[in-house]
Amino acid sequence: MRTYFPCPSINWYPGHMYKATKNISKKLHQVDIFLEVRDARAPLSSGNNLPINKTKIIILNKIDLCSVAYTQKLMEKMKQSGEHIIMYSATTNQNINTLLKLIKEIAPAKFQTVGSWMMIGGVPNVGKSSIINSFRAHSRGFTNKNPAKIGPEPCVTKSISGFKVSMNPIIYLVDTPGIMMPKLENNEQAMKLALIGAIKDEIVGVDVIADYMLFCYNKIGNFNYVEKLKLKEPVDTLNDLMAILKPRYNWDELSIAKNVLKMFREGKFGRITLDKQSQLAD
Ligand SMILES: Nc1nc2c(ncn2[C@@H]2O[C@H](COP(=O)(O)OP(=O)(O)OP(=O)(O)O)[C@@H](O)[C@H]2O)c(=O)[nH]1
């Protein structure tokens, strides 16, 4: 099995992200707190380092897809350096009460009628809009009308908009477009972001991303994909996988890569955490 993956150099910082970064800075003074959303499968790599001069809570979303024990260890280390950090799932509302309690503690509303104002941000596709909808679903008094737009691909949210997300306590949340770092210095970090769907597939290529996914599973010795794809044994590369699946399903190469990635992103191959504790500075 491969012990090294030659990660390509990837940069993706379209103009709308530049504009959104500027707009966020302009509007930051209007809020009490910033919720930085990261993907729990990449709790370090999906932090976008926006210069936020505000009380911040880091939400590790998609906890239902990560290897909990591993992400928890990373989280505990980040907590030790003074971060407010919480694991969350917008699809199951897991830990919503803990999050609301934390918000109340660190940013209580100055006036009950005005409520707390928060901004939510992070790299694309980590679940920012889904979190807004999960808050609204949890709080009484909201209908399903006008939810924040969500989707499986990055950059569904294009502009900054405000939502009332809780009646008691009153909380307003400002949604922002996903923003990537202007320069990704670390090629492996970029591949992890591509794998979790934070970078548009076309930028990297679904075949490269699916190949990297196989590399990651093999490296950590998680072979759930073998059973799910009805293989006899682990495969080293996407080419090996294609040689088996192509005749079986009569799929072209692109369809194989796309389907395998879709299964990964839906959690069909089991939980995974891509970052390592060794990436954290002591
Ligand atoms: N499994 C799982 N999927 C989630 C969770 N939260 C969000 N998603 C999915 O992740 C995808 C992206 O969610 P969005 O809420 O659109 O993400 P976003 O950060 O607002 O995306 P941008 O518009 O790119 O900024 C959607 O397919 C959601 O259904 C979660 O906790 N668990």
UniProtKB/TrEMBL annotation:
Keywords: GTP-binding, Mitochondrion, Nucleotide-binding. Its main location: mitochondrion. GTP binds at residues 61-64, 125-130, 178. SUPFAM superfamilies: P-loop containing nucleoside triphosphate hydrolases (SSF52540). InterPro entries: GTP-bd (IPR006073), GTP-bd_ortho_bundle_sf (IPR023179), GTPase_MTG1 (IPR016478), P-loop_NTPase (IPR027417). One of its GO terms (biological process) is mitochondrial translation. GO terms for cellular component: mitochondrial inner membrane. Residues 119-194 form the G domain. Belongs to the TRAFAC class YlqF/YawG GTPase family. MTG1 subfamily. This is Mitochondrial GTPase 1. It comes from Stentor coeruleus.
